[in-house]
């Protein structure tokens, strides 16, 4: 499940430039069209943390583009549009899934290296204990 969502997010990140080209932004009036993007992301009725994070990431990508084209003052409107959608249309889902803590928990990746280190240290400790006992028995 995590791998599928990661793949979906990664493919979305790669497609952001193409998405932006289909939504040409040249002036402040074009920002209003971007308010339709959140409903497009969730138009199939599926809500998950991957899609929410992708929407927020796309908003950040567009904000960076707005800065480049000297429309930096429009980033607030963009952020408000995306946040309003999430807090009105997806609020219940977000609350049911523990809000920000649920998102962090969902994307938490175990540190396998420290787990492996613990196992190896335990093995070394048991082997050392066994060697000590064998030496003392002699």
From TrEMBL:
Keyword Metal-binding: no
Transmembrane segments: 118-137
InterPro entries, per database record: Apop_reg_Mc1, Bcl-2-like_sf, Bcl-2_BH1-3, Bcl-2_fam, Bcl2-like, Bcl2_BH1_motif_CS
Gene3D superfamilies reported for this sequence: Blc2-like
Chief location category: cytoplasm
Signal peptide: 1-15
Keyword Cytoplasm: yes
Superkingdom, taxonomy of origin: Eukaryota
GO molecular function: BH domain binding; channel activity
Pfam family, one: Bcl-2
Localization, UniProt: Cytoplasm; Nucleus, Nucleoplasm
GO biological process entries: cell differentiation; extrinsic apoptotic signaling pathway in absence of ligand; intrinsic apoptotic signaling pathway in response to DNA damage; mitochondrial fusion; regulation of apoptotic process; release of cytochrome c from mitochondria
Protein family per UniProt: Belongs to the Bcl-2 family.
Protein name listed in UniProt: Bcl-2 Bcl-2 homology region 1-3 domain-containing protein
Source organism (scientific name): Aquarana catesbeiana
